[in-house]
Amino acid sequence: MTTFVLIHGASQGGWIWQPTAARLRAAGHLVSAPSLDGCGERRHALRPGITVATQATEIADLMFYEDLRDVVLIGHSYGGMVVTGVADQARDRVAGLIYLDAFVPANGKALIDFLGAEERQRLLGSVKAGDGWRVTPNPIPPDTAAEDVAWVSQFRMPQSVRCFEQPIRLQAEPAVPRSYIHCTRYADKAPFGQFAEHARRTAGWRFYEMDASHSPNVTAPGALMELLQRILQR
What we know:
Elements: E1 3-7, H1 18-26, E2 30-32, H2 52-65, E3 71-76, H3 79-89, E4 94-100, H4 117-128, E5 134-135, H5 146-153, E6 159-160, H6 162-165, E7 178-183, H7 193-201, E8 205-210, H8 216-219, H9 221-233
Parallel strand pairs: 1-2, 1-3, 3-4, 4-7, 7-8
Antiparallel strand pairs: 5-6
Helix pairs in contact: 1-9, 2-3
């Protein structure tokens, strides 16, 4: 049995992991899929002061108070920023990191630092068009089934811009096994190739590819489960 903590992407919540979490639990694993502060069922707490650092701290605290040990953290998309911070704060509780088409920040870098000019303009433009601190959700991948579009659309919501602008501060590189899953469908339209290439050529990383768009936890949970089992076996 493996203990998983699943961290969702921007504008989502723990609910996004339901298809994957069900499969992991059926295989005998312990699974926690919390919604980050201000997200999902915690939307009423959304405020400008939420940052990637505060969200990382709350997940590290959750692992402490739930006494979760030997945890495999999976971070999807923006969640890669959070799990990196969690692993830095709770080194004695983390056994591995899996980045699912996710950002992998270096010390002193913010998410916005990894975006191209067009992506950065969209992010900041959505803030300026609103109340000055909320970022609106990204478009849903075009190959998402209609029923899944209806499902995720009703729950997605804005997120604090400080989550994207605040640099992450790390004590050191993680000392646990790290895996990167790169979703190759529409990859040319996303910023994750830079992290995939780094994982592919850097010692200490295990690199995998999926023929899926950016959110396989929605569009391809079965294939994702098979890949997670392969990673665990290694």
